[in-house]
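Methods — Computational structure assignment.
A single polypeptide chain was analysed. Its primary sequence is given first, followed by the predicted tertiary structure written as structure tokens.
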Amino acid sequence: MLDGFWYTVVTMTTVGYGDFFPKTTGGRFFVGWPVMIFGIGLLGYALSVIAATLITAKSKEMKGMSSFKLKDHVVILSNYPGLAKLEHLLRELLYGPVGRTQIVLVDEHLEELPVELAKENLRFVRATLSGMKPSPAPPCPQTETR
């Protein structure tokens, strides 16, 4: 009966049966079980800390609260005109003059970046736009007409 409990705990904790194991009942119950339970608990704790860190970072990114450093990027100052209009603007930018340059959306009303925009590798910053003055756009190259 005690062997059954021993092999149940060994199997559930997935430590395996190995070459070295406690042979006496006292060794199994006072050394083997506590070591297995502590090991599984420690592994569970470590995995939960890693998962929580990753989830928090992604959540901050989606809510526009993460920080990042970019170079040669395009900034869109927006009052979120709607998903369809923003997707259209992104398509025009990505397949037009900007190419695959990183694009940053700055908006104060958007609570969280929509999944559709996150798939486009768009960065999001939630910030107040009042008082910001947009800089003039650079002139477009002129084409000659004959």
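Note: The radius of gyration is 28 Å.
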